[in-house]
Amino acid sequence: MFKEALRIVFTVMGEILKYSLPAAYLLWAVSGFGALGLHRFYLGKSGTGLLWLFSGGLGGLGGLYDLFTLPRQVQEANILYETKLALESGAAARSRSSDMPGYRYANPETPEKTILRLARKNAGLVTPGEVAIEGDMSVEEARKALDKLAKEGVAEIRVRSSGVIVYYFAEFAQDNSEFVDI
What number is the average pLDDT over the span 97-102? Predict the structure, then answer.
């Protein structure tokens, strides 16, 4: 009940803020310049509120620390409160938009992009097995995608001296000496 009595709801520029900086500073001053920790209880920090209460605000150092950091603490408490409200109401899912980079859905990588990324990473050489592992696809799907790129002239089919067939991407190549001509 005490905790709820301390909570003050303000409306600022259309936003409902659960925690107010003036109220937090008032509680900080009333509680012996932070020594009793009432402002921490108000901000929902019960653990440190109890610590401040039993230690006298860590011997006054915690109260002094809070004097300078209280605006940030109130801001963090309001962000946490708004996040909790959004999650409870389901508004977080509805408010996601493409202009907010943190909420973009990752597009699955196309086989071509997987192949080209691997070619760059492996100095221009790619095998169907590598593509299958990296692209989360079957070896047959990887081979078809590689063959398609070879038919388009983006890649060449080469044979290593060990006999392994690889797909060669000249634009990412560093050395051409390990191949045999067929």
Answer: 49
Q: 161: buried, middle or exposed (CB in 10 Å: 19+, 13-18, 0-12)?
A: exposed
Query: Could you give the CA distance from residue 37 to residue 169 in angstroms, rounded to a whole number?
Result: 65
E strands present in 34-77 = none
Full residue range of the structural domain in which residue 32 is found: 2-96
Task: Answer yes or no: is pLDDT of 151 > 90.
Answer: yes
Half-sphere exposure of 8 (CA within 13 A, CB side): 13
The predicted model gives 165-176 an average pLDDT of 83
Token pair in block for residue 124: 């221009």
Residues 142, 64, single domain; the answer is no
**Tokens linked to 114:** 């997987």
Token pair of 137, please? 């696809």
Please state the domain count of the chain. 2
Domain end call among 33, 63, 96: 96
DSSP state at residue 107: P
The verdict on 6 and 81 lying in the same domain is: yes
Contacts for 43 with CB less than 8 Å, ≥ 6 apart: 19, 24, 73, 74, 77
